[in-house]
Amino acid sequence: MYYLKSNYYIRGILFLRLLFIFCFLCGVTLVQAQNAVTVKGTVTSPEGELLIGVSVTVKGDKNIGTVTDMDGHFLLRVPSAKTTLRFSYIGYRDCDVVVGDNKELLVEMTEDIHSLDELVVVGYGTQKKATLTGAVSSVNNSQIITSTNSNLQQNIAGKMAGVKVITNSSEPGAFKSHIDIRGMGEPLVVIDGVVSDMATFNRLSANEIESVSALKDASAAVYGMRAGNGVLLITTKNGKTTGKAKIEYSGTYGWSHQTDLPEMMNAFEWASMINEVGLARYANPKGTYTPEQLEVFRNTPDFDLYSQYIKDFVPQTNHTIGVSGSVGKNQEVNYFINGSYFNEEGMFKSGSMDYERFNFRTNLTAKLGYGLTANVNIGYIKDEKNAPFQDAWNQIKWMWFTPPVNRETNEPLTSIYANGNPDYPAYMGAELNPVINSDSENGGGYKKNKSDRTSIQTSLNWDIPFLKGLSAKFMYNYSRYNALYKGWNPAYTLYTYKDEQYIPKTYMSPSTLVQDVHWATTNGLQLSVNYKRQFGQHTIDVLGLFEQSQNRTEYQGAQRYYTFDLDELAAGNNDKTQVIGASFPDIIRRQGYVGRLNYNFAERYLLELAFRYDGSSMYTGSGQFGLFPGGSVGWRLSEESFFKSIKALSFIDNLKLRASYGVTADDGVAAYQWVSGYTYPSGYYYFGNDKMNAISDRGATNPKLTWIENKLMNFGLDWDMWNGLFGGTVETFVRNRTGIPARRNASIPGVTGMDLPQENLNSTRTSGWEITLTHSNKIGSVKYDFTGNFMYSNTKNIYTERAPSSSSYRNWRENVNNRNSGLWWAMEWGGVITPGMDISTLPNEEGTFQNSILTPGDFYHTDLNGDGYVDGEDIYPFFHKGYPKIQYGFTINLEWNNFDINLHFMGAGKKNVVYSEFLKTPYAFDGSAGALKFHTDRWRQDESGNWIAGTYPRYRDNSYSFNYRDDTWRIMDASYLRLKSVEIGYTIPQRLTRKAGVSHARIFANGFNLLTFSKLKNMDPEYPGWDVDNPETGSDTNWGYVYPTSQNFNIGLNLTF
C-alpha cells in the first residue's frame, strides 16, 4: 500500500516537472518566434554576376540554410536580427554578414584565387585544384587586363610559372615576341578546345579572355603529336545566368615613349675620333681634319637626328564594349557579346606607321531540355598595319650609319635636306636618308599588311538522363585566315649641295612592287563521351574522344620591277624577266583518339591515366600514327587522419605530393619527306640574253622520317597554410628529346652527289625547377595579395650529328655532345695595359707583331692553352647565350577603401649578350659611318701626353682586333629586373552612380615598362639579340638595330550598367 502511494507520488512529481519544462520551452519558443525574422537578398560576384547555388547558412547552425536560385536570390527565416549568415561558394571566399536591420541584403562575394575548389582548365575539360596531379599554371581575366598592349603575350609575361615571354621589339603590330614553356620551345595553342596558332592568340583582346592555362608535363599528352613543347589553353568568356543584361565598357587613351636609344657622337667628337684612329694606325699627327675644321665642328650646334625622326610621345587607344546576360523563362539562354577596337601609332614623325585592330566575339549557350545544351562561339579579328618599306631596324641602322660630318663636303650636318631645301633630300653619307625613308608619302615607300581571322565553333552537349554522370558532346569548328601584303619600294634621289649645285644620286632603282596573298582554312570535328560519378568516397571521371581536322593553306606571291612610279601589279615593265611569281599550296590532315581516367579516393589518393593515338598525313607507313601515353599520381597528406591528429600541423590546410610521366611529340619537321619531287623556281640561269628560272631535285627521300619524341618527368609539392594566408608549389622537371631531324654527315661523305634526306638523329635534354609562392591577407581596411614565380631551366645536347674536324682542338670545340646548348666561346680577357706595364711578360697577342704595337689603353688576353700565343685556339666556353636560363615575376595587389593598386615585376638571370658593329667599336665600317657617344669614355692622352683611364679601350681601327675581340670583357651580363606594369584605380561609390544607371564605375591609370634595373647599358636587356626565333642556334650578338623599347602611359574608365 505504501509502495503504491509512493509510486503515485513520484509520478505526480515527474508530471509537474515535465509540465514546467514544457511551459518553459513553449515560452522560449514564443520569445524566439517573436524575435525571428525573414531575410531575403541577392548574391553577386564583384563584376555584378548573379551567383547560382550559393550556400546560405546560419553561422554555427548548418541545419538552418538555403541556396540561391537561378536569379541569385535567397529567402531564409533566421532566429533574430543578430544572426550571422555565412555565404559559401566554390571559387569564392566564405563571407559572413550580420542580418541586422536589413530585411534585404545585397552580398558581393570575393573570388578566392588560391581556393582549392577553384576549377583549372586542362586538356578537354576542367579539374579542381585540390585534385589536380599535373603541372599546370594559369591566370584569370583580372590578372590579364592590368596592362594595355596590342600583343596579348605581354599581358601574361612574368605571371605564369614556367612560361617565358621575351619581347624583341615594341613595334606596333609586329608581334616580335617569343613564348615558350620551361625553355622547351613555342607551345601548342588551343583556344576554346580547338588547336589554333600563336598569331591568333597574340591578337585576341584581353577583355574576351576568361583564363589562360599552360600544360607543362604529362598533362599535355592528350594533345599527342603537337604537344612536345607544352600546351597553352585559352578559354574565352561565355554568357552567365544574370537574369538581365549587363553592359560593360572599358576604354583607355595613352601615349608611348621610346627609350634605350644610345646617344650619338656630335661632329667634333666624331672628327676627333677619326683623327685619333688615324694617329694610332699611321702615326700621322696631322690627322684627317685640321684644327680649324675641328674648331668649326666644336662651335656648330649639335644636329640631333633622333629629333628629326622620332616623336616624343606616340598616341594609342583601346575601347571595348560587352553585353552579357541570360534570357528565357528559366534563363535558358546565356549570351556574351564583345567588341573592341585598338589603335597605336608608330614612332616616326612622318606618321607612316600605325596598327589598327577590331575584335568581335559572341558566345551563346542554350538549354534545349532533356539534358541537351547547344553552344555557338564566333570570333572575328581584323587588323591592318602600315609602315614604310624599310624595316624599322634597318632605319635605326642607317641612322647610326649617318656620320655627323658630310664626307664629301667635310661640313657638319645641319639638316636632312641639301642646303636646307625641302625639295632636295640630303645625301647624308649613307644610301638611306632615314628621315626621308620613314615617310611613305615622300619617297619612303610602304608596307601594307591586312588580315582577318574568323573562327566558328558549334557544339551540342547531352547530359544523358537515364544514366547519372554520363554525357556526350559533338563539336564542329571552322576557321579561316586571309592575309594580303603589298610592299612598294620606289627608287629615290638624294642630293649633295656642293659648289652651289645640287648633285643627285639615285638609289633603289628600279622601283619594286611585291604583293602576296595567303589564306588558310581549318575544319575540325570532335566527338566525346564523359562519365563522372561519385560513389561514396570514390570519384571517377572517364573521357573518350575522337578528333580529326584538315588544314588547307595556299600562298601566292608576285614581284615586279618598274621604271616609273605606279604601284599596281598590272602595270610595270613588259619584260618577263622583270616579273617573279610563286605559289605554294599545302594540305595536312590529322586524326586522334583520346582516352583519360581520373580517380580519387576521398580527394586523398589521386590518379590520372591518359593517352592519345595520333596520326598525321605528313608521314607515311608505320610512322604515320603514334601512341602517346601519360600518367600522374598525387597524395594529399593533409587529408590523412594521422596528419590531422598532429596539432602542430593544424595550420596546414593542404599538402600534396605529385609525380607524372608522359610521352609527347613535336611534328615541326619538314613535311612529306617521303615524297620525291622538285623545287621550282630554284635559282636561275641565262639562256642567251633570257633569264630562265631553274629547277632542282628535292634530294633523296626518307619514308622513315617521323616526329620528334619527348619523354617528360615531373615531381611537385603543393601547400596551402592558414586558410589561404600562404601557399606555394615547388616542381622539378626533365624532358628527354630524341629524333630531332638532321642530315647524316658523320658516316656518309659529302661527295654523294645528292642532297641527303633528314633523319631522326639528334637528341637533347631539358631540365630545371620552378617555384610559386602566394600570400593574401587583410590588415584593417587594407586587403593585399602577393603572387611570385621563379624558374630555372637548362638544355643540354645529348647527341648532335656532325662531321669530324681537321684538328684535335676543332674536334673538341665543335663536339657539342653532352654539353649545354647556347654557349659563348670567347677569349679570356686579361686586362688593359697601363703606363709602365712590362709588356714582355705577356703572351704574344695575335695581330700585334709580337706585342710591339701595344700601348697603354690596349687590351690583352690570357693564353689558355699555354703555347705562348693568344690566337684562335685560346677560345673556350664561358657564358650562356640564348634565352635566359632564369626567369621570374611577382605581382602585388593592394585594396584600400575604394582604391586599388596593381604592381607587376618581371626579370631574368643567367643571360648574356655580345655587342657588335656600332655597339662594339667607334670605327664601324672603317670610319665611313657615325658612332655612338659612349665610346668617348675611352683610354686617351691629354695634350701633355699623359694617359687618362677610361671604360673602353683606346681608339683603333678594326684591323687591330685585339681591342675588339669577342672576349669575356665584351660578353655582358644582361640580367634584369623590370617594373613591367603599374595600375592605380579608384571605384566611384555606388551612391554617386546608381541614379545614372551605373552599377560600377572605376577610373584608373596604368603604365608599362616603367623602370628597369640592369648592369647592361645603352640597350634594353630583354631583347635577346638578332635571332628571336632561334635563340639557341642563332647568334646573341647584338647589333642594336631594333625598334626601341616603349614606355606606355594610359588613363582609363570602366563602366558597368
TrEMBL record:
Assigned keywords, A-Z: Cell outer membrane, Membrane, Receptor, Signal, TonB box, Transmembrane, Transmembrane beta strand, Transport
Domain TonB-dependent receptor-like beta-barrel residues, every copy: 416-830
InterPro entries assigned to the protein according to its UniProt record, in alphabetical order: Beta-barrel_TonB, CarboxyPept-like_regulatory, EF_Hand_1_Ca_BS, Plug_dom, Plug_dom_sf, TonB-dep_OMP_SusC/RagA, TonB-dep_OMP_SusC/RagA_CS, TonB-dep_rcpt-like
One Pfam family named in its UniProt record: TonB_dep_Rec_b-barrel
Membrane topology category: Multi-pass membrane protein
Cellular component terms per the entry's GO annotation: cell outer membrane
Stated name of the protein: TonB-dependent receptor
Protein's organism: Bacteroides nordii
